[in-house]
Task: inverse folding
């Protein structure tokens, strides 16, 4: 028996173990996604010193603080321009933004669409748990129609963003959606994003038993996970406008996949100067 | 890139906004991130032309929120970073000016002030962002702000701003105004090797040294050494209250320790930072305090009053923040009153009142036109008569 | 001694360049102090447009002009707008084809700058013809300084034409004095 015990898990090498355990609730999807990101860092072949992890504010935004890479926990919504600047000043670095749906698409939406349009060489991993978890379960820009939140007690009346469709329309070179259950596919998608030059986007549907599950009569984390599992279908060639999430229509699946994987010159502010010499 | 391309050594007839841009070039600005806004846009336009030619990064961002965030990111990646804006854009930057203060990310923002509040007077002069610049972001923190009175000073002050920012790890502002930004005057640019450059304090520890606490200020100046992205230190920078290791520490004690240090690193060293010019103050019975474009009119008014035999002097602020409180205290033992002209309804005059029990007489209007010498002169004469 | 100069015309006549050349010539090549300001208000678009230059032997404190000592009018509307604020006995220079002075106007000097420019092949250099005329008629900037300012301001391919324009204006003033 003793020979199978190890001092440290291999993945500890990419965590700040002195900061663990993390603050995420039991059943939350951020932990598994963080694990997938850590595994992707290990497998990326890019030295830890060349990874940077940037976040805004919210539960998900705590992730960089646990990663043993250059990490930046910035202000609410502003992680993308911060990451953009690091990526331009240090082009050899692999810069990943790891934040939540409210941070990236509520308060930070403008930065997202412009960074995608510019095709800045950064990766954006968005935990989408449909609500503002850290402030106590308020409605977010991805909250499905009819779903409840502390600021939508009668049910949400606003149509939510379809994030993969939005990212693709803005020009992202890689767009994927998985759930926090799909740890292997998720890790592969993150790895693919790290390999790509340009703006990549991965949406991770994540259970939030406290902020989203509870007001929507989803008993616990396991039940929320089952909900995802039962309704998920993988279709890499899905028609992106169809990716909307509607909890009320049980006949409509949650579509997962790596939807976009194209090549396009990444943003280079000096591109015109370089072309001049040719 | 050659210094020759970076530093346009020689005499030029330059717009104030352009002089700000040339100051950034000469200071070795690596990255500019901004958003067009009158009356500062000419700075961005000039840098859009000049920076790519020397391999530096010019970014027109989607807004000033992004510009300021990019400045902090660039700064912590090792770049000298600057933006230029005016009041409405400055307001949007406040959120991440706080982040720059909290993360101790050196950076420079030029504010070409216009008439305010709100959209106000986009093309016309104002000096009403002085308190916004000091207190605009939430919380206690300290900044430094320069106030150029000429295109030459636009150039000089931007260089000072970069050096002060790097020396103390703070955001530094160049609080010009529309009149200065849009006037053209001779600017002498020295040879590249005569441009002063202060380097950031770097850690003595090697990457990986577990005893290295990157937010610990071991030196008397209270400034911790800065580490840059990609150097192998793999540390955490946090907008949350953090401990010496850079980890979140959201409790009263670490908070007080951190915020007190952020404040004290400037408050305890103002004598090393503060700059002003004294004109005819030696025998003055009356002191005028002025800055920016208004200082030019104040100089004329003081000269005219001297011709009339009034013993008046001028304290011209070069740094508006920190404010020369000790100088005001000292002058209070000598003069009978202070006259503070400014193109706002009394911002620095109120600051002056904090450090003297003497009468402080403001000469004010809300903006749109440069303060003329006449109302300053008339006030000097009036105050001298009654003093 | 301080000289307040206002150069005014209509938008598109290049009044800012004219002011820039005058100020630059004085500040960089005649060893004097000079300040250039212009109005940035919405009125700068179309209608009257002006540039204000101050030339002084000593450093200039107050950079604005309220009552010009020298007034260069390139267009009727600009003349009518600013003529009343010119100081008494100020020096008036006009574009003689485009400005019709009031009947009670005092002494002034004029040049058909646009026509002179057209003779050089490009009416767009009328502003620089006027700068040359200003130099010749007032002596506030030297011909050498004016030429240097042109060489160091305009794109290389435009320098020759503008030097010709400046000289044409300058000579016109000198001939006018001789006659």
Result:
């Amino acid at each position: 028996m003793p020979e199978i015990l190890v001092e440290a898990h291999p993945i500890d090498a990419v965590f700040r173990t002195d900061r663990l355990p993390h603050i995420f609730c039991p059943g939350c999807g951020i932990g598994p996604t963080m694990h997938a990101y850590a595994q992707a860092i290990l497998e990326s072949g890019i030295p830890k010193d060349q990874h940077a992890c940037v976040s805004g504010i919210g539960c998900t935004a705590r992730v960089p603080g646990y990663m043993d890479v250059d990490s930046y926990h910035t202000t609410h919504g502003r992680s993308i321009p911060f990451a953009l600047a690091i990526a331009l000043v240090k082009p050899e670095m692999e810069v990943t933004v790891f934040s939540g749906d409210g941070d990236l698409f509520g308060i930070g939406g403008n930065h997202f669409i412009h960074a995608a349009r510019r095709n800045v060489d950064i990766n954006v991993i968005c935990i989408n748990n449909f609500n503002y978890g850290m402030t106590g379960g308020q409605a977010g820009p991805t909250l499905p129609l009819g779903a409840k939140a502390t600021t939508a007690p009668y049910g949400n009346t606003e149509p939510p963003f379809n994030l993969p469709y939005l990212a693709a329309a803005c020009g992202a070179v890689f767009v994927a959606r998985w759930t926090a259950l799909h740890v292997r596919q998720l890790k592969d998608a993150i790895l693919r994003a790290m390999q790509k030059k340009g703006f990549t986007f991965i949406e991770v549907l994540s259970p939030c038993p406290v902020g989203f599950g509870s007001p929507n009569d989803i008993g616990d984390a396991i039940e929320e996970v089952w909900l995802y599992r039962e309704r998920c279908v993988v279709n890499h060639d899905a028609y992106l406008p169809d990716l909307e999430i509607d909890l009320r229509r049980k006949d409509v699946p949650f579509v997962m996949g790596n939807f976009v994987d194209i090549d396009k010159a990444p943003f280079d502010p000096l591109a015109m100067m370089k072309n001049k010499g040719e | 890139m050659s210094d020759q391309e970076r530093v346009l050594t020689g005499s030029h007839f330059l717009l104030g906004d352009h002089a700000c841009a040339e100051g950034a070039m000469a200071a070795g600005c690596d990255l500019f991130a901004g958003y067009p806004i009158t009356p500062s846009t000419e700075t961005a336009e000039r840098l859009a032309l000049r920076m790519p030619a020397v391999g530096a990064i010019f970014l027109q961002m989607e807004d000033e929120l992004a510009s300021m965030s990019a400045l902090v990111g660039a700064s912590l990646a090792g770049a000298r970073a600057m933006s230029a804006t005016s009041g409405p854009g400055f307001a949007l930057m406040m959120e991440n000016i706080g982040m720059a203060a909290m993360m101790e990310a050196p950076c420079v923002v030029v504010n070409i002030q216009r008439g305010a509040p709100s959209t106000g007077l986009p093309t016309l002069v104002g000096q009403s962002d002085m308190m916004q610049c000091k207190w605009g972001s939430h919380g206690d923190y300290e900044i430094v702000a320069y106030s150029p009175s000429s295109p030459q000073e636009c150039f000089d002050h931007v260089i000072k701003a970069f050096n002060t920012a790097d020396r103390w790890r703070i955001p530094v502002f160049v609080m010009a105004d529309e009149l200065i930004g849009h006037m053209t005057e001779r600017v002498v640019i020295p040879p590249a090797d005569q441009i002063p450059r202060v380097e950031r304090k770097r850690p003595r520890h090697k990457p990986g040294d577990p005893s290295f606490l990157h937010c610990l200020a071991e030196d008397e100046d209270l400034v911790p050494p800065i580490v840059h992205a990609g150097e192998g230190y793999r540390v955490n920078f946090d907008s949350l209250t953090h401990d010496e290791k850079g980890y979140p520490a959201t409790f009263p004690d670490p908070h007080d320790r951190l915020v007190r240090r952020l404040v004290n690193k400037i408050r305890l060293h103002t004598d090393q930072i503060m700059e002003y010019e004294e004109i005819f103050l030696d025998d003055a019975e009356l002191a005028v305090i002025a800055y920016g474009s208004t200082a030019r009119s104040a100089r004329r008014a003081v000269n005219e009053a001297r011709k009339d035999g009034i013993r008046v002097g001028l304290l011209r602020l070069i740094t508006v923040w920190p404010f020369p409180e000790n100088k005001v205290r000292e002058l209070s033992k000598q003069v009978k009153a202070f006259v503070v002209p400014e193109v706002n309804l009394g911002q620095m005059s109120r600051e002056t009142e904090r450090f003297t029990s003497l009468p402080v007489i403001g000469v004010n209007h809300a903006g749109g036109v440069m303060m003329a010498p006449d109302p300053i002169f008339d006030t000097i004469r009036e105050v001298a008569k009654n003093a | 001694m301080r000289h307040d100069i206002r150069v005014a015309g209509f938008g598109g006549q290049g009044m800012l360049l004219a002011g820039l050349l005058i100020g630059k010539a004085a500040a960089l090549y005649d060893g004097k102090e000079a300040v250039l300001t212009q109005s940035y208000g919405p009125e700068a678009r179309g209608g009257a447009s002006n540039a204000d230059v101050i030339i002084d032997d000593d450093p200039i404190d107050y950079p604005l002009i309220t009552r010009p000592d020298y007034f260069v009018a390139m267009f009727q509307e600009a003349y009518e707008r600013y003529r009343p604020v010119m100081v008494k006995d100020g020096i008036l220079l006009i574009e003689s084809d485009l400005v019709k002075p009031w009947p009670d106007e005092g002494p002034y000097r004029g040049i058909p700058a646009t026509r002179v420019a057209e003779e050089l092949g490009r009416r767009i250099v009328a502003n620089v013809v006027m700068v040359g005329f200003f130099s010749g008629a007032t002596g506030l900037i030297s011909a050498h300084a004016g030429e240097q300012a042109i060489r160091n301001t305009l794109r290389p391919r435009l320098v020759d034409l503008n030097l010709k324009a400046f000289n044409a204006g300058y000579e016109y003033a000198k001939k006018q004095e001789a006659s």
Q: What stands out?
A: The two ends of chain A are 65 Å apart (CA to CA). Chain A has a mean pLDDT of 95. Strands of chain A lie at 51-55, 70-73, 94-100, 123-128, 131-132, 138-139, 174-179, 200-205, 232-234, 254-261.
